[in-house]
Every structure is written in structure tokens, then in C-alpha cells.
Amino acid sequence: MQGPHPDGLALCRIQSALAADVVVGAGKMDIPVTAVYASDLMSDVLAYGKPGSALLTGLNSKQAAISAYMAEFRAVIFIRGKRPAEAICKFAEEKGLVVLSARDDMFEACAKIADLDGTAADPSPSEDLRPPMVEEETIRYAFLIDGHDFASAGMVSTQVKAILKTVGVEPALVRRVAICTYEGEMNVVMHADKARTELVLDDHEIRVVIDDEGKGIPDVTLAMQEGWTTATDEQRALGFGSGMGLPNIRKNADVVDLTSVVGKGTRLEMRFRVI
Amino acid sequence: MKLQDMISPLELKALTHVEDKEVEGIFISDMLSDVMSSAKAGDLWLTVQTHKNIVSAANLVDMAAIVVTHGKSVPKETVDLADRFHVAILSCDGSNFELSAKLHAIGFRPR
Hints:
The structure holds two protein chains of two kinds. By secondary structure, chain A is α/β, with parallel strands linked by helices. Chain A is 34% helix and 25% strand. Chain A folds into two domains: 9-120, 3-Layer(aba) Sandwich (Udp-n-acetylmuramoylalanyl-d-glutamate--2,6- Diaminopimelate Ligase, Chain: A, domain 1); 139-273, Histidine kinase-like ATPase, C-terminal domain (Heat Shock Protein 90, 2-Layer Sandwich). Chain A has helices at residues 11-18, 42-48, 62-70, 86-95, 106-115, 155-166, 171-191, 220-223, 233-236, 245-252, and strands at residues 9-10, 21-24, 32-33, 35-38, 53-57, 75-78, 98-101, 139-146, 192-201, 205-214, 255-261, 265-273. A five-stranded mixed sheet of chain A has the order 2-7-6-5-4, with helices on both faces. A five-stranded antiparallel sheet of chain A has the order 8-9-10-12-11, with helices on one face. Chain A is globular and about 55 Å long. Helices cover 36% and strands 16% of the residues of chain B. Chain B contains five helices and five strands. A five-stranded mixed sheet of chain B has the order 1-5-4-3-2, with helices on both faces.
């Protein structure tokens, strides 16, 4: 439970309480959000945020919009008057995310939203447009992730998510795969030189393998521990690198296989059962 | 409001020694750069960050205390550093948003 609005609170009510500017999604202001997640740490958003939430953040980077999309949020509200860049707006527009910009700081915004009465909101009917699962077929895709390329970070997982949605994988499963792929992708961007990524799915299983070339991980067991990190302050400024990535992956994937050779690279295989 | 008086209504847990300070405002952020640029002296800082750098940031801005939210466990080196610099760290199980709602309910308003 991350907010007092289990029945949903229409975005227009939040927008008017905060006197926020609608940056993207003016036509979607009647959509309800069911919770509010206030954080600048994207791994936490991915780990604890609930689908249908609004993200309240001061992290004015594309990673905020990508994380919100991966976690199935409906809106991103930038605080302290931050205006998202064109690339963020374009991404949000494409993915159907609402983007607001509010002048309040995080506490002011939280307090004003907490003051709204969620029960008065009238949630619009949720739509379910997913096509039937493709039968008896193995789908295979390959992608390349560039290490150190923070500008494109998150694009491979965005494509993976779009593919899974298109073939009609159940939304909760899509979300889990997307979150794991995104964390894996960010690890490559932060710590490796490049990686081949493979997505394989059939009726029974979805498999994502991220095979990187880079410095490798000396102690895999240690790396799986929550809070353990070698990220730099610059990387933390992107909302990642808090030592939540691999634990988050383990939480969301059914099977995780992580092998690493120091000086060569790391192979992360994540498998998800399709029921 | 006095920090000591907030511990029980907000169900906070003190991880360090807590001096009796006045809390003058609330600041929520998980980015140290934002804290350094926008937080005010006397603010109570809500964050999910637990890295020992939070102690330096709180100390520089002269914040009333740090509340680590979402039940995050705080590493010993962070707590030790906080004790050394007389920065109070408390923790709570709720999220940034939930604790904001409680603070609002006990009378905190944006300053």
C-alpha cells in the first residue's frame, strides 16, 4: 500500500491540486492512478512500485520515464518545476504515459495528494486489448547494448517490452521480464563495454540472456546481495547503482543464472515461466 | 515540532543517538545533489538512500535528521559515521509518500 487511493484518483485531480502543467497526455487526465510512488531511485521504483501508480520524482532524466513505463505506471510527475527534455516527452507520448510538471517540492506534492479524497474519484473503465498468445512458435530476437552509453540506456528493454506486449504475454509477466531486462541493461551500461542480448519465447518460457564483454564480477555471491555496489556517484545520479539491481532481478525472475569471468565478462540468464 | 516528539506518532525507529532538535520543514529526495542545492537547514530529510554519503550531505546542509524510509536496512558504516558527526538517523517502514501523509496529518505544512 503506497497511498490512500485503492479505488484510483483521477490524474486531473492531482493535476489541479498541484496546479501542475500537463506536459504530455492532455487527453488522458481522467485516467485514475491507484498509488503514488515518490522517489528518485529508479531501482526502488522498479522493485516496490505498483502498476497503475504515478511516479513523483525530481530525477529529470529519461531513466525516470523508462522506469515508469517498465513498472506499468500511468504518470510521471516532475517536481520543483523541472521540465523534461524533448526526448523524455517523446518517449512518454509513444508509451502512453502522462507527464506533469509541478512547482512543488516532493513533500509539498505528497502532502497535497494525500489530502485528496480518493473515494470521490471515478475511475474510468480499464481496457484490456491484448491479443491472443501466438501458438506453438518460438520467437527469437537479438539486440546489442552499448556499455557506457547512458543516452540510449533502456532502449533494449523498451523494445523487449514492446515485443512481449505485441505477442500478448500476460501484463504482469511482461512487467517482470521488462524490469529484469532493464536492470540487466543498466548493469551493462554502467559496468561493461558491450553486450549481446537475446530474447527467446515460446508457449512455456521466456528467456532473456545478456552476455557482456567487460571487467566481470570477482564475487558473484556478493554482487547478488542487496546494497552491494561498485557504482560511481555519477551513476547514482541516474537513479541506479544502489545495489538493488541483481536482487531485484532475482525477485522478479523464476530462474537466474549469473556467471562471470574477471577481465572477460558476465553472462546473465533470466528465465520466466509462462503459465 | 521537536524531533523527539515525532518518534512515537510517526512510528520511527532511532538508529543513532537523537538530540532534541527542532524540525522546521520536510525535504524528500534520493539525490544528494538535490539535497545540497535545495534542502534547508532544519529540514527533516526523507530518503531511501542508505549510502554513507547521506551523512555528509545532511551535515553540510545542517538538517535536523535523516529518516530512511521503506524499511531499508542502513549499513553500519553509515550509522557509525552519523554518530561521529552528530547526525541523527531514524528509520520507518512506510514509503516516502506514506510518511509524508502522516507528517501532513500531524500538522506539517510546506514552509
